[in-house]
Design a protein that fits this description.
This protein has 316 residues and is of the alpha+beta class. The protein is built from ten helices and 13 strands. It folds into two domains: 178 residues, Ribosomal Protein S5, domain 2, CATH 3.30.230.10; 128 residues, Alpha-Beta Plaits (2-Layer Sandwich), CATH 3.30.70.890. Strands 2, 3, 7, 8, 9, 10, 11 and 12 form an eight-stranded antiparallel sheet that branches. The chain has a five-stranded mixed sheet with strand order 5-6-4-1-13, with helices on one face. A hairpin with an 8-residue loop joins strand 2 and strand 3. The chain binds L-homoserine.
Length: 316
């Protein structure tokens, strides 16, 4: 038996929901914007091969890869349940750049856990799988936050609930919004981008944060796109992270000129996103970003919609 799992890129925070909102992305031209993990029958307990454009940026020792940590986490779960773990040979197709703000580590983690789960005929339920994914993500970024793993796994826009034993719930998304996502080609580590944030915030900022996320969720449910877009602003992280992203200020100006609904930092950056309603303008924005924001040959830009499928597993 063999399985292949695709896990999409995601935007953490989505500006308005620091650590508590995330969105999965799907390029409209059908390009792959996510990681793939395959699991095959094997004679060894565990082996891992790393392929893909960004494979060379990862440690070559398989035991230093997060996929191995996913295997250990899965094994611990199976041991606790007295279930057998099958010897497995895994392949990671590392398509997403590391430290990009596109939920790269989340995509590898989610694809790996889901591949192991599918390979063993789903002993874990979705809640248990998501818990393990969050724990593994926390290992990499220094704190447990589900804003990439939840949308990557479940698809759509996800709100982290963290109460009544609910990790995350779906938020309706606006079908006619294009999300222009651009990775400039440089790396920013999430841990470093968190370290520069203040430990405490002014009362006025916390009130603005609470009002904006509440209004965004309410407007998403009532289908009021204008209202939702008007509060897609980040008062907690963006003011401090702007300095980590060369050229971000110019992006905002260009986006405004092209009638964008909102501009934001994707997760902890350096990727950014621009929300637009007009496809021709989104294409113009993409061309401008390719010309003016991308810094080297690793950078890329995609016009996306929200990926409502999330992670997809298939037998191969
Ligand atoms: N929400 C986290 C942050 C991770 O902004 O630090 C984003 O990928």
């Amino acid at each position: 038996m063999a399985v292949s799992v695709y896990a999409p890129a995601s935007i953490g925070n989505v500006s308005v929901g620091f650590d508590i909102l995330g969105a999965a992305l799907k390029p409209i031209d059908g390009q792959v914007l996510g990681d793939v993990v395959e699991a095959y029958d094997s004679k060894e307990e565990f082996s891992l091969e790393i392929k893909g454009y960004f494979a060379s940026k990862l440690p070559q020792d398989p035991k230093k890869n997060i996929v191995y940590d996913a295997f250990l986490g899965f094994k611990e779960y199976m041991d606790q349940k007295h279930l057998p773990v099958k010897p497995v040979s895994m392949v990671l197709h590392k398509n997403l750049p590391i430290g990009s703000g596109l939920g790269s580590s989340a995509a590898s983690i989610v694809a790996a856990v889901e591949a192991l789960n599918a390979f063993h005929d789903y002993p874990m339920n979705k809640h248990e799988a998501l818990e393990l994914m969050g724990k593994l993500e926390g290992k990499i970024s220094g704190s447990i936050h589900y804003d990439n793993v939840a949308p990557c796994y479940l698809g759509g826009i996800q709100l982290m609930v963290g109460a009544c034993n609910i990790i995350s719930e779906s938020v309706p998304s606006f079908k006619d919004w294009y999300w222009v996502s651009c990775y400039p080609g440089i790396q920013v580590s999430t841990a470093a981008a968190r370290a520069i944030l203040p430990l405490e915030y002014k009362r006025s900022d916390t009130i603005t944060f609470g009002r904006q996320i509440a209004v965004f969720i309410q407007a998403s449910h009532t289908g009021n796109a204008t209202l939702a877009a008007s509060v897609l602003r980040d008062v907690l992280a963006e003011p401090y992270r702007v300095k980590l992203i060369p050229g971000y200020v110019n992006v905002g100006e260009k986006a405004k000129e092209l009638g964008a609904l909102a501009t934001g930092i994707s997760g902890s950056g350096p990727s950014i996103f621009i929300v637009m309603k007009d496809l021709a303008k989104a294409q113009e924005m993409k061309a401008w970003l390719e010309q003016n924001f991308i810094q080297n040959e690793d950078g890329f830009c995609n016009i996306c919609k929200i990926d409502t499928d999330g992670t997809v597993a298939k037998e191969i």
